[in-house]
Amino acid sequence: MDVADLKMFEAVVRLGTMKRAAEELNTVQSNVTARIKALEDDLGIPLFQRHARGASATQAGQRMLPFAGRIIKLMADARAAAMDDGEPNGPLQIGSLETTTALRLAPLLSRFTAAYPEVQLTVTTGTTARLVTEVLEYKLDGAFVVGPVNHPDLHRRMVFKEELVLVTPISIGTPKELKLNGRLKTIVFRAGCSYRQRLENFLACMGIANAKPLELGSLDAIIACVEAGVGVSLLPRGVVASAVKVGRVSAHTLPAEQADAETIFIRRKDAYSSNAMRAFLELYQPAQKEEGLVMSAWTIA
After folding, report:
1. Which residue, among 288, 300, 260, 258, has the nearest Cα to 111 in the 3D structure?
2. CA 214/CA 211 separation, integer angstroms
3. What is the pLDDT of residues 239-249, one digit of tens each?
4. What CATH number should be reported for the domain holding residue 72?
């Protein structure tokens, strides 16, 4: 068993077929098939169930997958640490909520890419649940998510606070009017979005438990659907401020316990903090101070 075998194993589990794994790894399918068979022979147990659609991990394969990911990441960190001299360089994979990307990250990303052109920065958007999982699985170096997030393997730092507002069509004068709508829809991101869960809890407290979710993939689409009267949403005030100003939608203030949301930056405790990551965190801190936001001190291992 070596790192190359584990990379092939992880790719087959993730992609579901030997062919797709071979394409991603820039090799031939017969090589992947042979290496996976050799790995199974070495362990003395099948790692995949072969079928017409491809290959699915057995229970043994599923148990092995997290260890394969950790070993692959550890080897990548070792290589990065050995070569991590001088100016920040190399890949840096950051995750973020779409709302955070739209509202907060653009100035930072502009400053960072200008200051450190040798860093290959990638920003992936997703829900809090998905981003937490991808940080834990070493797929992301860090991510901006909505707290609280409590996991023993994660560093957590609050970076700023948001005020969430109920976003409705302008025809809705107060949130109480929603109880009169027998076919209320919530316009939300997919399952795992913390704002979606808060909206469902808010409506439940109002006695509205039958609202049907409409899942969309972008902020612009959500705001447009609310404007068209399709349903309601829950978003940071800053995200909808321009739409409210021109009268496209209404934003309703919520009680503090429902409106206050903390955005935190998470990363694994055992992951190597490269010069690129250090530069990213150090550049971000003064940017937030300029906005007068409360910051916790970064801990950089």
Report:
1. 288
2. 10
3. 999 999 999 99
4. 1.10.10.10
pLDDT at 292 over 50: no
Query: Is residue 301 situated within a structural domain?
Result: no
CB 165 within 8 A of CB 280: no
- Residue entry with tokens 């997290």: 66
Spatial separation of the C-alpha atoms in residues 14 and 12, rounded to whole Å: 5
How far apart CA 288 and CA 265 sit, in angstroms, is 13
CB atoms within 10 A of CB 232: 28
The end-to-end CA distance of the chain, in Å, is 30
98, two tokens: 């779409």
51-65, 148-162, 177-191: lowest mean pLDDT where? 177-191
**296 belongs to a structural domain:** no
Q: Residue 26 above 70 pLDDT?
A: yes
Q: How confident is the model at residue 284 (pLDDT cuts 50, 70, 90)?
A: low
Examine residue 278 and state whether it is found in any structural domain, yes or no.
yes
pLDDT at 286: 44
